[in-house]
Amino acid sequence: MTTDVTIKTSPALALKGSLFTLTAIQLYRFDLLEIANELDSKIKQAPNFFQNTPIVIDLQSLEIDSSTQVTELIALFKKKKLIPVGIRGASNRYKDLAIEAGLAILPEAKPAPKIAKTAKQSAPEEISEATPHTSIKADTIEVTEASNQTGSRLITAPVRSGQQIYAPGGDLVVLAPVSHGAELLAEGHIHVHGPLRGRALAGVNGDKTAIIYCKSLEAELVSIAGQYKIIEDLKESDLWKRSVCIKLVNDRLQVEAL
After folding, report:
1. Phi and psi of 107, rounded to 5°?
2. Domain span holding position 83
3. Strands 153-155 and 190-196
4. What is the rounded distance in angstroms from the CA atom of residue 13 to the CA atom of residue 97?
5. Where are the alpha helices (DSSP H) in 56-91?
6. Going by fewer Cβ within 10 Å, which terminus of the chain is more open, N or C?
7. Domain Septum formation inhibitor MinC N-terminal: where (predicted)?
8. Would residue 206 count as lying in a domain?
């Protein structure tokens, strides 16, 4: 006589929706030397920020003539210690090449959505000059299906290092400090009624009218509709550690005292 014994074990994996902020490198023309020089200039400003940074290669404004050019671009970025993880805007004949190189095919950028002015706020939660040839933007790429929650969000607890708060379809209001290594994302405005020491990305879907407000500017990075400033740029201003509002004027970030 035999007895079958079934041993239940915990699952080996789980699928979860997540949002990651990736740097998109938007190319306007194919000139490897010029691209390399402009990358060096950007990296020199903040070497730690770009070290082993995952990037998306954006070809929406660039005409690629051959598969060799795609391969050369990937090799160039890897040589600069950047890690290409995806590509967008490539024609169909080059998508297979990108997949063979281990890159994900990402959707093209969408026009900025119109945010309803009458959206209800949710309950508190606990927790450049001329167009350059190469433009580096901090875009929010949704890599898997995220929450369907929409509207503004109000956060009352401190946002600690490693935490990410996202407000889809509305504004994000934080009534507490935001620590180094924390990240705030909103399709609308961002209000921080305390020190902002982490990253703040407003208008992540392309809304150029979005504004960032904070009581004390100490941020690692601020971004509106993909245009950004990093801590080295912000520290040069006499508005460092002061109450400010940050907005986009002629496609350039402008920091003003409150």
Report:
1. -70, 155
2. 23-105
3. unpaired
4. 30
5. 67-79
6. N
7. 14-84
8. yes
